[in-house]
Design goal:
The structure is a homodimer of 442-residue chains. Chain A has 442 residues and is of the alpha/beta class. Chain A has 13 helices and 15 strands. The radius of gyration of chain A is 21 Å and the shape is globular. Chains A and B meet through α2, β1, α3, α4 and β4 of A and α2, β1, α3, α4 and β4 of B. Chains A, B: Keywords: Aminotransferase, Pyridoxal phosphate, Transferase.
Chain lengths: 442, 442
Amino acid sequence: MSPTKQILALNRFEASDGAALAPELAARVARRQATFGASSVLFYKEPIEMVRAEGVFMYDAHGKRYLDVYNNVPSVGHSHPAVAEAVARQIAVLNIHTRYLTKPAEAYAEKLLSKFPAPLSNLTMTCTGSESNDLAMRIAEAATGKRGFVVTRAAYHGNTHHVTAISPSSMKSKPVPDFVRVIPEPDPALAPGGDVAAFFAGNLQAAIDDLEEKGIGFAAVIVDTIFSSDGIFADPPGFLQAAVEVAHKAGGLFIADEVQPGFGRTGGGLWGFSRHGIVPDIVTMGKPMGNGFPMAGVVTRPDLLSLFCEETGYFNTFGGNPVAAAAGSAVLDVIEREGLIDNARDVGAYFKAGLSTIMGNRRDIGAVRGAGLFIGLDFIDADGRPDQGLATFVINAMKERGILIGAAGLWGSTLKIRPPLCFAKDNADFFVDTLRAILAER
Amino acid sequence: MSPTKQILALNRFEASDGAALAPELAARVARRQATFGASSVLFYKEPIEMVRAEGVFMYDAHGKRYLDVYNNVPSVGHSHPAVAEAVARQIAVLNIHTRYLTKPAEAYAEKLLSKFPAPLSNLTMTCTGSESNDLAMRIAEAATGKRGFVVTRAAYHGNTHHVTAISPSSMKSKPVPDFVRVIPEPDPALAPGGDVAAFFAGNLQAAIDDLEEKGIGFAAVIVDTIFSSDGIFADPPGFLQAAVEVAHKAGGLFIADEVQPGFGRTGGGLWGFSRHGIVPDIVTMGKPMGNGFPMAGVVTRPDLLSLFCEETGYFNTFGGNPVAAAAGSAVLDVIEREGLIDNARDVGAYFKAGLSTIMGNRRDIGAVRGAGLFIGLDFIDADGRPDQGLATFVINAMKERGILIGAAGLWGSTLKIRPPLCFAKDNADFFVDTLRAILAER
């Protein structure tokens, strides 16, 4: 089985597993598969039916409570009343596209853009991170006249045709297309001498050279600035600077995919790229932007957006509607009012320290790393190799004990720890204690 | 100026026009352009700031009321309380992706799929019509192993990279890519002997032959089943049957893009394809599906969806969340409870008759056509040629008199009449009387 197949199969319900589900659950799953068909993806060998959620907790149909350490979309907390109220208020009054002026859309655009460094001053509103990355690719193509992209080898940037091409983790067997080059994730364990910056920039340079040599040319490198699907790589801060320099020197762009790290998760400002002291050419956003209200966006420089719009008309029907703007604005307000960036930093550091304590006593944890409330924890076998089986075991055991968690990385052996940003220290304690107990009882 | 450029420029605010806007409006527009940049698209030489909307009416910042005869997203009526309440209720309780089971998602999928003929029994939820058409293209590619698509010459199917390739109306100067063939719209005026079915199917066959000859192969023909951007062509009912036969005989698929005609607008069932007595291989939906809540979908046969999923993992983070399901379910309920399909049929027929009366007395209206509450009205000059100038004049004069309307068609000379489905006969009277007066005073 290839690494990619491992990721796709990870902790996914498979009807073919023939697991003996309770009759009621079996019936629910059968209904799901009859309607959603082959595109149905359900978590766990025994899927969970969720009925409500609040803050850091979700509740299933049997009233069982789960601590959510997985879902990064309801980032300011499940069912946050400020977001729910903002949506409820606006949707009863006006919900229309941006070809009319509306105060909520313009006010939100100004509020969001005030969070970006110059010269990133134009916002295009879309509905999904996929749409944002699809647009970002085309802005880069228009700006450079080139079509080559460089991504990491377990990258996931979305689900459109064009974005799937730069998402190796979505491909089950086919290689990436000719215009895509795949480079290793910035893993200190892979970098000679642990020099992540030189390792990553060097691999980028080699990929660019190959694109140029093959006559494809280099449009952009696009990275999730915390490398979520690659296994979470945040350190050392600043390591992306060398990559930005390489991209610019080659005449291409640096696209920061902030769909995962954005909106405060890394605990060091709103954006993952801030950790690296860089200014990307294009920034894409999605998932947590509206705390679950479908909305996303692209921020870039006016000159780049203009080049794209010269040839292609772009309009997004739902993008930037006043209800989305109300949701997005409430999210920014809550992040500020509730001090969620500081909370991500403080609770994240506390959480990481707790996890590191477990690691200190065990040989099956290879590393704990991350920034803020985005932490990766590697499981390894006795030979130090990625242990996907252990990750899957832990994920299911955690579920039994009321914790939702998932995995990432090329081998699916890294716990992907990314709870809502209102996560508290006692939530972290519960997770650490539970993980310790599960591993001890193995 | 090419036809396509005409459409893109149609009734769009252009800063370069140097229109003398009132200072307050000029300031608002400047704020918009500073934030949205080159991707900002505003209607009218003097853009309108909207503040609220209800039923068939919208209200601007000065309290001026507009009868909405343009916006097809808030299809069951602006700010419909049933939709607003369904969203408000659900977003306060649970908003999560489909990798958990949720009753709202499964119940909505079953309700929606019950509105489709066999063998269309699988639904994939997305967020936008663009995402739906992007996915439909890939399902067709996977099913046929071919990559050629046939579309009409002013088609618009969405804004992703792949879908833009099959949307000639989005391209400002470049030709369509090598895998796309463009055929004329099914205009009775172009069809020899007025035989629209033979004309359209014959052109499709020629396009397919060319794709095969060039070694590209034929994957699918995709049509908006009421040909909105082409200028609205609904008659005679059944004319698409011959095209479906041609597509199937060539081993390709027929994709019905229901983003515009879907959800009752044509007054003859929920779908535009019903008018033609056909069963498409893939149906895509969008705009009115959630009355403005960002949601969309793809319905197809299980065998086709399975073929696609064999190679590519598809998951849509926001797609099928329970809030979208609640909105979509409320929309279906309102359509049924308020008899909106019958209303579209009855008021649409009444409306079309009223417009035809104007045409009977004038030489500058070439045709009135459509189905239900989707009506096209062609403006022509003294030589019988498309008169985009008159369409633009009417659109702006209508605005002054409190009516929102737009244009479509290859030359932008066709009034695109598609009000909310709760449109009443007195609303139609107001439109007809106003149009008559505007034309009389010219």
